[in-house]
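Hey Z.,

So I finally got round to the magnesium ion thing we talked about over coffee. Here's the setup:
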Amino acid sequence: MFISFEGIDKSGKSIQVSLLSDYLKNKGYQIVKTCEPGGTKLGEKIKAILLHPSNKVSKISELFLYLADRREHIEEVIKPALKEGKIVICDRFMDATVAYQGYGRGIDIVWINKLNKIATQEILPDITFLLDINPSLSKQRGRGNDRIEEEKISFYEKVRQGYLEIAKSCPKRIKIIKGEDKPEKTHLAIRKIVLRFLKKP
Ligand SMILES: Nc1ncnc2c1ncn2[C@@H]1O[C@H](COP(=O)(O)OP(=O)(O)O)[C@@H](O)[C@H]1O
Ligand SMILES: [Mg+2]
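And the result:
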């Protein structure tokens, strides 16, 4: 099973990824907890280039760097784990590129969808949790100072709306979860959906 988490910065993805993977591990499942960018050795280097505040990266180069990171991640981590029957829990995946580089930066979404298909070898998450919060709450929670997180609130508004559009077009895969509730409450909602999926014959 493949689960991804999406949402703007500080929406609570890292916390929810940890809560879900701990919960499923305790139930005896084999879990691979991973993230994008940076889920492989090469990916860590790509991530460092992408996030360093003083790097100037054009938006198309940025897109290709994320896609390169994703392709490595699929080949080296995600595909092998799924083959072994493990549950992969990934902090950001292909929807992030559509939301940030597409809706946020304005790159053609048709291109991005095509390139994503190549990068992922058409391996899709079974469930994607979109943690939806207002960008002002993201800021309140203390946004960091990497190259992407330095973006203005208007950029985050576009990314948030983008995520909601993507969710509308994939209602079966993407579950919109309110990210404003207490982490434990949010976790219970997520857990319920995952357990329902695991119980399906
Ligand atoms: N539901 C929540 N309520 C209040 N604070 C939260 C909640 N979820 C996350 N936070 C806080 O917001 C910050 C970002 O959370 P994190 O899980 O790292 O988000 P992300 O991985 O999406 O950037 C952390 O300081 C965390 O403690
Ligand atoms: Mg995080």
